[in-house]
Write the structure tokens for this entry.
Amino acid sequence: VKLFETIQEMGHQQVLFHHDPEAGLKAIIAIHSQDLGPAMGATRLFPYQSEGHALHDVLRLSRGMTYKAACANLPVGGGKGVIIADPSHKNDSMLKAYGRFVESLKGQFITGQDVNLSPPDLKKIRSETDYVVGVEEIAGGPAPLTAAGVLLGIKAAVEFKLQRQSLEGLKVAVQGLGNVGSSVARLLAERGADLFISDIKTDVAEELADRYGATVVSPAEIHTLPVDVFSPCAMGGFLNSRTISQIQAPIVAGAANNQLESEQQHGQLLTARDILYCPDYVINAGGLINVYHDMIGYCDQKVMTGLNSIYDTLLEIFDKAKSLEITTHEAAKQLAEERIRQSKTQADRQTSKPLAYSA
Ligand code: NAI
């Protein structure tokens, strides 16, 4: 890996490596940007194939957090933490050592829960640092709000692409029925959508199909259905040359992070196939909006305003992509960068300090 070249190209401010052999901790924290405020981003524990894979993940996810926060109009920057470990080796001393690593950054990085970490794990991290959010899962944790944001994104996309106001009878294929996907399915069912659902855990899919009158589809086929919307709510990197050529839906709108295997190539392929893609970090910002408000003091009304902005921002991105003849992914990136520039200019004018967090 050409580390410094990569960091420069992706625009990271700092990448920190931490090794505590006694605690069995190998972790990386990437701070992409603090231009809008302290870097926020959840921590993922994962048995990465190699340290290079971990680094690639943390660099890409932290940059995504910068764009996510900017598109959601939140005064925070982007960061991410990864712990390289098998989930079965997770233990208190490892989590506490990670907490000390986070604490050493003195609030430049605020973290929460991602893959393979639970609220009780966060409590252990929190015992060593104040810079942790989501410990108490206020308002049910981030997933319900992520799903609510995805629903708003689907509405915006359907309005823009299909000129439809109602979700009644809309055919939607939901891939992945975990915390977010199951809520997306529920919200769509409540609005009368015609649902096709899939999960590698077939019992989960069958149970939800009974509850919502949905049709279960095999994981190998869910993205190939002739529906109005394909909603990827499972793992990242699903949109690649093979899968995109099989998609028949005119809209891709789901919660999964890092959906495009290659941002440029596969963003362009979706556009070339006339498929409207809702950029992942814009449509799935509901969870970040939730944890941000959890951090500053929860206010339902402000959270709802933040959530509704996902709908407006997506429409702005679709218009921008159409008029500039660029991909929606590129339009979202440009919008985020514009918002960061504007906010920096305003801050320079007011010579105000960035938001400081102290728990
Ligand atoms: P989860 O782990 O609860 O659910 C994922 C589900 O996808 C599981 O039920 C799993 O069995 C299923 N799955 C995995 N591979 C599959 C495949 N090939 N086909 C069908 N199903 C498959 O995760 P969660 O929290 O629901 O998140 C889903 C996605 O949304 C992830 O990519 C996550 O990074 C992203 N996301 C989640 C947020 C949240 O608030 N939880 C916030 C923003 C993004």
About this structure: The pocket of NAI is lined by residues 142-143, 146, 175-181, 198-201, 204, 219, 233-236, 255-257, 284, 287 (CB under 6 Å). The first helix runs from residue 3 to 10. The chain has a mean pLDDT of 94. The first strand starts at residue 14 and ends at 20.
